[in-house]
């Protein structure tokens, strides 16, 4: 009887510990093909991943890295809200992208404090490409307690190239038909040209004013008129660090924007029409001008469509505006960082998924990975000649592979800024990019930028929220006098503790040697 009881007790102990061990074991994240499934939050991810097995670029990537990407969709107009909602509800995808560092947002610091996002391992030696990549300034500046919580998505070689993220293209052919004989060199001349095009309406299409390809583009184009770089912290003339929006001439910017909006040189539907709809409107002659990102070379497919519709060369009919002088006569211009956005990893990912994610990014950042993402399939889309990839003429990756619209998951296309990078984009379009960048380097002016200050975390700063894009549209479309609205806006920020927040940040900046 005692032996039986002892056996029964021993059996219970074995079952108990076996059960505990099963509870602790992580379920595998692999699908039936043996690939680790990774949910990814990316702009229009559903469409980019729609090709499945038929998308040779996606299929090659998944075979090379052993992952299977599953979309969690968002768009350029709703991603901030969606990611915040996912974070609150515990529904974040395994990896997601966005510009949540800086810009008056506490999201990044809150996520670190609350354990919402996961830090990269300190030892990345198994992933040599990623390890080297994480030495960039943006990654180091964003470290919290010595840990990396972001993987920067490199945009450009240096910040001067980010002038390519805010551009103006306009219909010069229509301007000439409307009696304009000189290409505009400042905002007054530009406005006058647009008014004449709208009044003459040379193609009888009821043409409107400026449209934009993204909800933040117009603000980024116009803020420099007041010496404001809305995505930057700066060191002002008094040696204090602060967001640029609180140092520049906001009234000058907003009076210009309001005047243009009311006179119609900025389209009334500017806040609703973005992306491909804006490009379609410009192509169809419904808008006299368009503000857009990614530089003039990004419009080469639009240019091809234009030539099919009108039977004329796109670059003969349009012009790209130079950097216009600001209210003070200086040619301030938009800049971002070497990586305008970043990738985050959910704290809920298993060790298996973390390893797969690191392997994925190590490949995407490698030379081989970038060739796949931005040159396509060797033999089909490009050939290796003298050790360099040469893209075949006429190849348009985004039309051939749906995943090419997500090829910048890790880094942006070097084609847009590196003139030596292989591409099928015609030479004349790339030359427009070079001209745009050279205008910034030769004629442009920048304040003393302090990204290190933007990435400081203090109690008051982490709670202080401001949104220069919301403010821009609120005042531009408002009905009260501009100066009154700007004064009211600034008072509201002071009432929320702007000055105390800046004092706190400046004390910390002094401790860190950012300012004297």
TrEMBL record:
SUPFAM superfamilies: Periplasmic binding protein-like II. Residues 1-25 form the signal peptide. InterPro entries: Bact_solute-bd_prot1, SBP. Pfam families: SBP_bac_8. Coiled coil: none annotated. The keyword Translocase does not apply. Keywords: Lipoprotein, Signal. The keyword Cell division does not apply. It comes from the Bacteria. PANTHER family: ARABINOSE-BINDING PROTEIN-RELATED (PTHR43649), DIACETYLCHITOBIOSE BINDING PROTEIN DASA (PTHR43649:SF12). This is Lipoprotein LipO. The lineage of its organism: Bacteria, Bacillati, Bacillota, Tissierellia, Tissierellales. The gene is lipO.
